[in-house]
């Protein structure tokens, strides 16, 4: 369901609640629109993303959080933050697990606002490192991340 933002209102970022689960999960299919690798099964990816997001909304704590921006007709954008241990730093870091903007709300700065919220969340926890992953075919997201100061970490990484 499209979720345009009221142009007269500054959209607030809030913690997702159990009442947001359906609206958040409705956005998940957007994650695979940008060319996942051929060896990844799109249906399985969406299924796992839905499970992870629903579980994260039900169990928010210092190590993870799910945040949303409401649109006129539902959830316009969602951010899921988690904690990983960086392989080389050997200490916890903030990780943008999911950032999705509804198609009807694209171009309104919601991704940028959620990414700024992610940085504030990480700083508030004392993290000095934040990571994310993105499919190279998701050029709009890649551009946002690059404009926000993210750089490719391991462009030669592979999976099998």
Automatic annotation (TrEMBL):
Domain N-acetyltransferase residues, every copy: 11-160
Keyword vocabulary terms for this entry: Acyltransferase, Transferase
InterPro entries with a match to the protein in the record: Acyl_CoA_acyltransferase (IPR016181), Bact_Acetyltransf (IPR050832), GNAT_dom (IPR000182)
Xref: CDD domains: NAT_SF (cd04301)
Keyword Acyltransferase: yes
Keyword GTP-binding set for record: no
SUPFAM superfamilies named among the record's database cross-references: Acyl-CoA N-acyltransferases (Nat)
Top-level lineage group: Bacteria
Protein name per UniProt: GNAT family N-acetyltransferase
Source species of the chain: Luteimonas endophytica
């Amino acid at each position: 369901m499209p979720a345009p933002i009221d142009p007269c209102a500054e959209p607030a970022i809030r913690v997702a609640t159990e009442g947001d689960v359906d609206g958040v999960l409705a956005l998940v299919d957007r994650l695979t629109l940008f060319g996942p690798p051929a060896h990844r099964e799109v249906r399985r990816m969406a299924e796992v993303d839905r499970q992870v997001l629903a579980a994260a909304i039900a169990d928010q704590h210092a190590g993870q959080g799910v945040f949303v921006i409401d649109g006129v007709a539902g959830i316009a954008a969602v951010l899921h933050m988690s904690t990983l241990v960086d392989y080389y730093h050997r200490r916890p870091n903030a990780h943008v697990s999911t950032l999705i903007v509804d198609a009807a709300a694209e171009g309104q700065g919601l991704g940028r606002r959620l990414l700024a919220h992610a940085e504030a969340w990480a700083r508030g926890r004392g993290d000095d490192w934040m990571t994310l992953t993105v499919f190279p075919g998701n050029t709009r997201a890649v551009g946002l991340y690059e404009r926000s100061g993210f750089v490719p970490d391991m462009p030669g990484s592979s999976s099998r």
